[in-house]
Amino acid sequence: MVVNTSKENLCINKMVNKKKEIIFVEKDLIVPDAKPDILNTICTSGVVCLYKTELQDEKLRIDGNINTYIMYLADNSEDKVRGINTSLDFSENIDIPNAREEMNFKVDVKIKSIEARVINGRKISVKATLEVTVQVYSNEEIQIVNNIENDENIQILKEDLNVNSLVGVGETKIYTKETIPVQDVDNIAEILKVGMVVSDRDIKISYNKVLSKAEAQIKIMYLTEDNRICTVTGRVPLVGFIDIPNVAEGNICNTNYELKNIIIFPNPAEEHSINIEIETIVKCIVYEEKKINLIQDMYSPNYDLNFNQKQVNTMINTRQISDIKKIREKVNFEDIGTKSLIDVDVIPNLTIDRANTGAFDGELECNFTFVDGNMNVEQKRAKIPFDYLSQNLGENTNSNIEMFVTNQDFIVQDGGEINCNIDMQVVGKVSENRNINLIDEVNQEESNFSQDYSVIVYIVKPGDTLWNIAKKFRTTVDFIIRTNGIENPDKIDVGQKLYIPRYSKITI
How many CB atoms lie within 10 A of CB 399? Predict the structure, then answer.
């Protein structure tokens, strides 16, 4: 006899693969005729742009470039410091096992290192190391049994779960054009160095739309016509609407910013400003956290139950993280003398601890640039370790946590000591991987099981639960609890004696 059930449709989400890959980009560059010969390189910086990211079966294709800025020491007596801007194009296929074209994915590409080596006075070899992080998600429509009708003869084991159910996917393109002013006395000769990070990320949900808000923090080092080296910083707003039907307040929004192109050049000298044009793609995956009371197992003391059962892996208990980490430390460079500090690049590197406790270890990689009165440039490096306590993560955890420097201040003291005041925004999401049981097609038949005893004394073994014991002896958890006076049904001890009388249905 078929047991009547009620069912619910659910679109579950799971992580298919998370992968990090290192790729290398190399190029030989000829110094333009208008530039002096190179004696030595001082520093090399770059900003990654992604033209295209495409998920295919078992692989990811990425095409992009690195806008590269090389600051060098010129081989003449007139211009000590000069700069070259070039583009390093790359195209890469990354193997992603189990990936399929229709799946959702997130790509993050960071520069691990970039350096320029002088081959001769007119030729440079540039090599960049990129770290590509890929996360691939799949969505599956499933049907779950959420209730058994006329279940008075059936014992049911349920579990409350918070499951991620896909609401929708969308993206938008943001084009922003801004100018960053410089001092009126500065007539810009050329750009020496550029750094950019997208921070202050936030979302707002309105009717069928997600408003994504962030800021591109841009730091530019430039050379003036009178051979001074200066730096300027600016914030460019990145704001756009993403159309996603049925999105609602309280949904979980997973957004990702892909920089497609950035153009930076000095405006005419009389304007005393730098032009910034940024093209960004914002991708958004929205989930609803559904609370379900999922049937995990069932049996009947009086009948034989037959049902189909399968396991499905999904993501549960997604939590969003938004925090500020403040670091106040000191570093010391005894040999800087009277040199002036003109720039500091700060790169956060974060590593999750192996115990999955939510405690993160990391370090700030700080690159200091000094200049003396003769415009001689020198770079020094320091690493500042830090820790960050997020929350207990537990086993089988997916963590996607990023840190962005939002504010930094460096105060040089006598003797070469530098006070480092750095604020970082911490954003991300944490979820758990979980196998859940799905039950279907429940049938009930007359049972041949006989109980030829009045009471059994059972000794609790490792791994036992009251549910398993009750199912084994065709009784109920309630019956065992009442018979043995158990106060906490979730706690029984190995070696504990349990009295299990023959089951008889109690009617009122």
Answer: 17
**The dihedral sign for the CA sequence 69, 72, 76, 77:** positive
DSSP one-letter code for 103:
S
Q: What's the rounded Cα separation, in Å, for the pair 381 and 397? A: 34
Per-position DSSP letters for 431-447, written without gaps between them = EEEEEEEEEEEEEEEE-
Q: Interior CA angle at 45 toward 192 and 116, to 5°? A: 95
Per-residue pLDDT reduced to its tens digit, 73-101:
888 767 688 999 999 999 999 999 999 99
In terms of DSSP bridges, do strands 155-181 and 397-412 run parallel, antiparallel, or are they unpaired? unpaired
d(CA 259, CA 257): 6
474: left (phi over 0), alpha (psi -120 to 50) or beta: left
**Within 13 Å and on the Cβ side, how many CA atoms surround 349?**
12
Report the alpha-carbon distance of residue 44 to residue 117 in Å, rounded.
10
What would the CATH number be for the domain defined by 452-501?
3.10.350.10
What pLDDT sits at residue 459? 93
CB 161 within 8 Å of CB 436: yes
3-state secondary structure of 487: coil
> Per-domain residue ranges for the chain?
12-137+167-287+318-434, 452-501
Percent of the chain with pLDDT over 90: 43
Q: In the chain, how many H helices and how many E strands?
A: 2, 20
What's the distance, Cα to Cα, between the start and end of the chain in Å? Answer: 26
CA 65 – CA 25 distance, rounded (Å)? 9
d(CA 332, CA 89): 38
Mean per-residue pLDDT over the chain, rounded: 86
SS (H, E, C) 10-56: EEEEEEEEEEEEEEEEEEEEECCCCCCCEEEEEEEEEEEEEEEEEEE
Q: What is the mean pLDDT of residues 107-133?
A: 92
CA 367 to CA 229: how far, in whole Å? Answer: 17
Condensed to tens digits (0 to 9), the pLDDT of residues 327-338 reads 999 999 888 888
Span 178-197, mean pLDDT?
92
H or E stretch covering 401: strand 397-412
Contact 104/253 with Cβ under 8 angstroms?
no
The CA distances from residue 222 to 71, 182, 191, 229, 343, in Å, are 10, 10, 4, 6, 11
What is the distance between the alpha carbons of residues 437 and 249, in angstroms, rounded to a whole number? 30
Task: Tell me the whole-structure pTM to 2 decimals.
Answer: 0.82
Per-residue model confidence as pLDDT tens digits over 60-72: 999 999 999 999 9
Compute, in degrees rounded to 10, the torsion defined by CA atoms 315, 318, 323, 325: -30
Average pLDDT over residues 458-475: 90
DSSP structure class, residue 78: S
Length of the chain: 508
Residue found under tokens 């690049």: 345
pLDDT category at 445 given cuts 50, 70, 90 is: confident
